[in-house]
């Protein structure tokens, strides 16, 4: 029997690079998966049928969060797994960041996590009949919530907020049988990473990822960048009954990058 057989999962940012990898892994493990995103193509701009139930969702809109969870309730009656993977990056110092952009990135990365979780909780409680093996929420922080990349001030601030929110949610809802954790990825080859290295604030001088891939890999103790599937593997474990005792933690997955002192230089 597969690890998520009979489970119902909801993934925001489910049509992005990491989101799609999570959805694919969940489906392979027997889950019914709702992939929520702004559009069916998502950041990969591909509408291939991947076996998920697509849900149009702007995570900043409360009415849409309510509608999304109403649909899950009508079609499934419960929810076992919530993954808050939707997020954006703004590549500026605080001096270069407009108030509009500051509010936008917090609305997506932090408020979006809050709204989706808020309206998912009643459905998650319906799955919390066996508390040690109850439902799971997996939020997305970042190693940038602990240390900082240049030119990502607002992004770093949002991820620090998600880390604190994750701990608070775990404390509040653990007694109800709901586990809450956050994954904190490092460099993962996604459209967001490629955009970062093409930007002015990355320290790569606007170079393409292909031109800087070798030094990016070399700065990691493991000498490699992450792949979306690497993140999906950890999400799967945190979502499964195998992680029954895991809650309130920030799981850094960065190839050892944040364990060392030296910084990347191009």
UniProtKB/TrEMBL annotation:
Domain of life: Bacteria
Family affiliation: Belongs to the short-chain dehydrogenases/reductases (SDR) family.
A GO molecular function held by the record: oxidoreductase activity
Protein name: SDR family oxidoreductase
Pfam annotation, one family: adh_short_C2
Keyword Ion transport belongs to the record: no
Keywords on record: Oxidoreductase
């Amino acid at each position: 029997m597969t690890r998520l057989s009979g489970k119902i999962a909801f993934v925001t940012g489910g049509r992005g690079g990491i989101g799609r990898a999570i959805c694919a892994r969940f489906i392979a493990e027997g889950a019914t998966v709702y992939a929520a995103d702004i559009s069916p193509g998502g950041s990969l701009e591909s509408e291939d049928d991947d076996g998920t139930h697509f849900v149009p969702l702007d995570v900043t809109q409360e009415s849409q969060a309510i509608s999304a969870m109403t649909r899950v309730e009508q079609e499934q009656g419960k929810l076992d797994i919530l993954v808050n993977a939707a997020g954006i990056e703004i590549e500026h110092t605080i001096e270069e960041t407009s108030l509009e952009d500051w509010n936008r990135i917090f609305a997506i990365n932090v408020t979006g996590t809050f709204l989706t979780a808020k309206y998912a909780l009643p459905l998650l409680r319906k799955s919390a009949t066996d508390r040690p093996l109850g439902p799971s929420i997996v939020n997305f922080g970042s190693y940038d919530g602990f240390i900082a990349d240049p030119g990502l001030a607002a992004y770093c601030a949002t991820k620090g907020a998600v880390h604190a929110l994750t701990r608070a949610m775990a404390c509040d809802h653990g007694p109800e049988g709901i586990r809450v954790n956050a994954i904190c990825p490092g460099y993962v080859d996604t459209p967001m990473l490629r955009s970062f290295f093409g930007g002015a604030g990355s320290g790569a001088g606007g170079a393409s990822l292909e031109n800087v891939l070798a030094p990016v890999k070399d700065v990691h103790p493991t000498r490699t960048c992450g792949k979306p599937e690497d993140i999906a593997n950890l999400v799967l474990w945190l979502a499964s009954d195998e992680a029954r005792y895991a809650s309130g933690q920030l799981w850094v997955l960065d190839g050892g990058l944040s364990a060392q002192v030296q910084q990347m230089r191009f």
